[in-house]
Amino acid sequence: MTSTLPETSASRLDALVSASVGAARPAADASDEDRARWLESVAARLDLHADELVPLADAETHLGTPRLTGELARTTAQLRLFAAVLREGSFLEATIDHANPDAIPAHGDLRRLLVPLGPVAVFAASNFPFAFSVAGGDTASAFAVGCPVVVKAHPGHPRLSQRVAALVTESLADAGAPEGLFGLIEGVDAGIALVEHPAIRAAGFTGSVAGGRALFDRAAGRPSPIPFYGELGSVNPVVVTAAAAEARGTELAQGLAASFTQGAGQFCTKPGVVFVPSGVGFEDAVVAAVPDLAATLLTPAIRAGFGRGLAALAAESGVTVLAGDAAQDTDVVEAGPVVLATDVAAAVAHPAALLEECFGPVTLLVRYDTPEELLRGVRAVPGSLTATLHAQPDEDLADLVAALRDRAGRLLFAGWPTGVAVTWSQHHGGPYPSTTSIHTSVGSTAARRFQRPVAYQDAPAALLPAALRDDNPLGIVRRVDGVLGLA
Amino acid sequence: MTSTLPETSASRLDALVSASVGAARPAADASDEDRARWLESVAARLDLHADELVPLADAETHLGTPRLTGELARTTAQLRLFAAVLREGSFLEATIDHANPDAIPAHGDLRRLLVPLGPVAVFAASNFPFAFSVAGGDTASAFAVGCPVVVKAHPGHPRLSQRVAALVTESLADAGAPEGLFGLIEGVDAGIALVEHPAIRAAGFTGSVAGGRALFDRAAGRPSPIPFYGELGSVNPVVVTAAAAEARGTELAQGLAASFTQGAGQFCTKPGVVFVPSGVGFEDAVVAAVPDLAATLLTPAIRAGFGRGLAALAAESGVTVLAGDAAQDTDVVEAGPVVLATDVAAAVAHPAALLEECFGPVTLLVRYDTPEELLRGVRAVPGSLTATLHAQPDEDLADLVAALRDRAGRLLFAGWPTGVAVTWSQHHGGPYPSTTSIHTSVGSTAARRFQRPVAYQDAPAALLPAALRDDNPLGIVRRVDGVLGLA
């Protein structure tokens, strides 16, 4: 069902970026309340068009109506969360130190806040056509803090991208946002030119390790480097302790099977590597729980990649196929779930081959015999978005939790990692390669990626931003002479 | 007076980094109060040895006793500021969202805080042998949040570096800090190996554009890239409006002359480019105010670089020498101050040549005729740590302030940029090349460079860090269900 759209030309790209440069100061100067209304306007317009957008998304992504309906609701809730963040005001980190002749060294009046970085490039993902795409979290968080955005559409859902872009443009105009605040481009070359454009000040990206690293290298290699907030690939380790397998093995096996096949395994938080105790029957329970699934993956390229990844994993020495077909004919559109197994010795010996993300409905069970062997296996896992620990209440878990925390940004002690809440405390990020920065792409603090601090020294009141004036006209939480409060 | 010390060998470097890896978990697990005491122990020991350290620093840097006495006091005050930051507790950004089945999407219990990144590399600067060196701000802020540190000593003050390192090691041991928390290395190759060492998780750097960019490229080019917090070079633009020059030209000229020659112009915040109104006598006032200075610069390499930089600037077409000797014989140890002048047209035509940092006692006056020409000139200035605006109260300055804010991290409306307060609201950073990140290297938020967020989902109370427990045992400010407070 996908159609190919023409690549954005160099001159069109330049015009869009120039427009975003023109929008940067009005967006920065707009009040937080104004920007909150822009976000709410976009959210309302997308909700209004749900009946049109969801089928369009399903036609291009095959993710199904229930999932896409939920994803759209999540996307508009995300836009509204950032409106709430704007009204709460502490995202500005307003900080005031009055002049102090007794300090070491003595100092004048100094006031700090965060300001927008400027035009931002956003690279949309294939697997969340709403939540991590044209009007997704990167766009919402950049708009929130006053940054214009140019989105590079994902070729997996071009018609949906264009339609959402049109709705974003209309709703921003209706809400009085500056012209040029939003633009959409298409094509690989245009994307590279975007991240290298001198006027672009930061980039957000969700996608593969290979594609993300190539763009990260471009961003870092610019004459004037920019931050590249990439979410690349993640194996999301799960640990099932022997005690947990014994106490609730069937329930855990069912949960795992549902999680690694959810969305046909096309989640960045899919549990890809599962440490399981040997000889207690947990593997059999997983095999028994695997659903009878035949799913059309997002794109033919992802289908082919899944086939290649599976074949490579299955060909590794020490890897066995427990369930499903590891030699799938990728000319067949629909993919089926696969469970592989190995042991810690093999995983530790070949971490680059075995402990690498394989996008699609597959998981690798890694058997361990002892707690020490389990720790050794966990320490070989690359940086991940999440790590999940299923254990029993009376176990001594300090070393295991420390080892998992070293490798992941979110630690789960119940449930499965494939759901990602959109809240103040969410962290969706982790050590490389799961992300290329120490920041999150989901939750309220995602906005900080597109802000930089500025300190005002001895500024006349008339030249201070409202957030820094003595009378606190915005009524926001600030730090004054070291103390956080509403003063 | 400087001596050369042997390069750190590859095996010694590896041993030091291995020790820092060993210290990472005890440092992360230590209480904030414990870490505050480590910092205070280092501060007390350095203060106690001031009478030994200041003469040692002066012998190697020629910066003089008053300045170095003040710099040591500032350095120990900085260590104590981070102890205060630890006790205040909001640096952890503790955030709690209770489970909410009505949220979109519904979510479980989610709690976030910042944890240490792991072992940090610190590259010491030549020009602040205490404050930006072995026990300077990078080291203090990394220790504060629980990161072990390996410092690469600056060759400009090797004996001081070794002595400070010995005092740091002793005072940390006395305070009960884990072994391996601190190490010192020397030599260019060892520094490169340090930033490329797989166990190093971040780097702080203060130095030249060329040296900093080379290390930034290494950090970004690693198989697993790390954040490189570099402070490279800054021209720190100053604008004097026609009205200000008329109202208080002599006072401003004297302030400028004192600022650009302070510490023999070897400050990263030296005002290097000054936009001055044509034809109102301001240039003459600057020339009249230049002190009769003959200063020994930090190192022979810096002396030679100053001579080369001066000669290159003076050779540019459109540049004239207003005061001092632009063809200094760099075999003569002592350097004298120089005032150069050009106009906006020349500066805009050749920004790479004219608007680039020249480390040492020189400043470039850039004449403008109209407010529009002034704006054009300001917009050609590269990213800087500071920008200073001397204007009169009734002037319309919105465009000028916006243009300066685009290019700098600290905006001054009185005084001169060469003093840098160590406070909660300080921002010592700015667009590239002044820094390679959006973070500060001075002030309380410098600690955030060495932290990453972790979210705990549905964690049993016994496995939660103290900062995230329901009863708030640390008594710190947290965000609970979206509301900041002491709950």
Automatic annotation (TrEMBL), chains A, B:
Pfam families: Aldedh. CDD domains: ALDH_KGSADH (cd07129). Residues 4-430 form the Aldehyde dehydrogenase domain. InterPro entries: Ald_DH/histidinol_DH, Ald_DH_C, Ald_DH_N, Aldehyde_DH_dom, Aldehyde_DH_Superfamily, ALDH_KGSADH. Keywords: Oxidoreductase. The keyword Signal does not apply. The keyword Oxidoreductase applies. This is Aldehyde dehydrogenase (NADP(+)). It comes from Frondihabitans cladoniiphilus.
